[in-house]
Amino acid sequence: MMSKTSHLAFADGKILSVEDQVAVALRRLSSGESLLNIGVSFGVNQSTVSQVTWRFVEAMEERGIHHLKWPTTQEMEDIKCKFEKIRGFPNCCGVIGTTHIMMCLSSADTSNVIWVDHEKKHSMLLQAIVDHQMRFRDVATGWPGSMNELSVLRSSGFFKMCEKGTRLDGEEMELPEGFQVREYIIGDSGFPLLPWLLTPYQGKDLSDAKTEFNKRLSATVAVAQSALAKLKDMWKIIGGEMWRPDKHRLPRIILVCCLLHNIVIDLEDEVRDDALSSHEHDTSYKQQLCNIADNNGVMLRDKLSAYLSGRLPP
């Protein structure tokens, strides 16, 4: 932002410094207030607020992308250790979740039908994989609300890398009785059960071991739910219903909010206990179910269920 000459000015003619521009952009992203209200607060016109915000978004994409990256081998060892301490899952590399970014679009425009989700609202989906500190490690966004979690997952680069064996490809962990556990992530019932993605047991009258497994998994998945809730609460531009946004620019704004989310976590000494208190980020959305189950995923889940209940067979 410093390298670009700027003639953006306050209403009194004074040129906005880089610090002024960052302040305007952060206010816009964090408050979700209208361009008019923010302009009045800072003494600039609406177009200036819009230009400054977009300059900031572009600068963050160019210079801040390193704040959202897949863990190094050493970082991953710490992440796996911390996840095991949460609810006992060994060799777990993260938690996956999705959330809807709400949009107010014209129903008269037939091209907007693709953005209508299963709750009859217009939205854009964000898929995120988070670590134990609620830091985003991989995100995919821009997908229309008409898609489900399975479709978004399959369309993501993360899925393709996992299927090729170039992600979640670290060392296996050996458990008692010689049971080998590969690297994997955890998700809710909206995701498929895969060799590298564990989801809850579905159905009624589950055994004690399966019920216990689901409780542990749910408590671990809550880390992703809390991260998404925190993201929307702190960066309210994507937390409410956006008025007819530019659907080509919105994914870039979502990405920058995720970068800022991570920067805030990096600046904190540790995750506060109250940060995990809220899991609500899609309050008006019902849980969808995915019935796809890969045989290798079934085997891994069953063995982990037995291990966590202390009943791993010899």
Automatic annotation (TrEMBL):
Recorded superkingdom: Eukaryota
Alphabetized UniProt keyword annotations: Hydrolase, Metal-binding, Nuclease, Nucleus
Compartment(s) where it occurs, according to its Swiss-Prot or TrEMBL record: Nucleus
InterPro entries named among the record's database cross-references: HARBI1-like, HARBI1_dom
Keyword Nucleus applies: yes
Gene Ontology molecular functions: hydrolase activity; metal ion binding; nuclease activity
Entry cofactors: a divalent metal cation
Gene Ontology cellular-component terms listed: nucleus
Family: Belongs to the HARBI1 family.
Organism this protein belongs to: Musa acuminata subsp. malaccensis (Wild banana)
Segments forming domain DDE Tnp4: 109-262
Record's protein name: DDE Tnp4 domain-containing protein
Keyword Hydrolase in record: yes
